[in-house]
Amino acid sequence: MTSGLVTAGGGGGGKVMSLRLQYYVVLGGVAAVVLLACLRYTPTAAAVAAVGYGFWGNGDGASLAAAGAAATTVGGTGTSAAATTGGGGAGGGRSPSRVVIFNFGDSNSDTGGMAAAMGLNIALPEGRTYFRRPTGRISDGRLVIDFICESLNTPHLSPYLKSLGSDFSNGVNFAIGGSTATPGGSTFSLDALYGHGGRKFWVHGTGALGCLPQKLSIPRDDDSDLDGNGCLKTYNAAAREFNAQLGAACRRLRQRMADAAVVFTDVYAAKYDLVANHTLHGIERPLMACCGNGGPPYNYNHFKMCMSAEMELCDMGARFASWDGVHYTEAANAIVAARVLTGEYSTPPVRFASLVNSTAVPNDG
User: Could you confirm whether the keyword Transferase appears in this record (predicted)?
Assistant: First the structure.
């Protein structure tokens, strides 16, 4: 594989290109965290009054499942999603199990919401690998949330702001570039997910911020803050501390919401490994943006970013970890998703599929 860069031709753009540039400037400062929450559909009021939610085995879990099940996920710098398992069928038969997903997050799991809201005409090379066309995802292809959907055999999520061509039969994506996860400060905060019956939450922490080309390209006096893999130690220390506090907050939530499953997934290790062991993953340039400006070592220029008239783009077959200096490539997202789904980075240690399909998850960790 080659990893050369080609400079995009000059051409056109005027007002549209200006909008695109503003779009990316805004997305460059998006919050580092997205919550991934896994919910079950709210049973009928009568069912709740009769048996309660009983999710942890303290009540009638079977009754809850019969009332109807669903799963929702809210994700962080990686993704956010929700899934629901269908109930039984009529006439003694059983309808095929289906998953309904509700995703909450920022641009890392936005499947086109911001583009739809702003009326942006995003062009190639966005979406060039898997979709072969731009879809509003800030990547060359699929996001972690897309791989999560595929692991559950359900279609990719449509953004809730896209009125044309959307299919909400398997859920909806509420992720919007630049959104936050502050509880109580948004219509879609966790306490509103919980108040409407959400009982399974999959919460993602933040990744290795000090390894992002966006951060590494900031001028510095010397390289004393770089670790052995070329990442900024200060930013990564802040990311690890953030995750520690988020994990502690999830433990407190498990105590307060005794009838809910709150799973914290620390994606820092999985994302740092993309850099530390990049050769094992077949990644050629772990600290360099595939689409950006400036060439090696980081190919990131805050004023000439991906999608600008002067972008420098890596070859189609090259495997980079970073797409535009902030967001990840499909190759990197696939690796992170595969590891996250195993549950090895989660507390309690539970596989995502198990959380979606079960009616009882250990309330520990």
Answer: no
- Number of structural domains, the chain? 2
Where do the H-state alpha helices sit in 28-160? 45-51, 61-67, 113-118, 144-151
Instruction: Return the closest-CA partner of residue 323 out of 90, 164, 140.
Output: 140
Tell me the three state secondary structure of residue 74: strand
Q: Bridge partners of 7? A: 312
- Alpha-carbon distance of 213 to 324, in angstroms, equals 8
Q: pLDDT class for 118, splitting at 50, 70, 90?
A: confident
Instruction: Just list the catalytic residues.
Output: 107, 324, 327
Model-level pTM? 0.74
Whether residue 238 is found in the same domain as residue 331: yes
DSSP state, 45? H
The residue with tokens 């951060």 is 215
> Where would I find the H helices in 73-143?
113-118
Domain co-membership, 297 together with 226? yes
Question: What's the CA gap between 322 and 34, in Å, rounded?
Answer: 18
Q: Is-contact 183 189, C-beta < 8 A?
A: yes
Q: In 3-state terms, what secondary structure has residue 67?
A: helix
Q: Chain-wide mean pLDDT for the chain?
A: 75
Q: Which domain holds residue 169?
A: 98-180
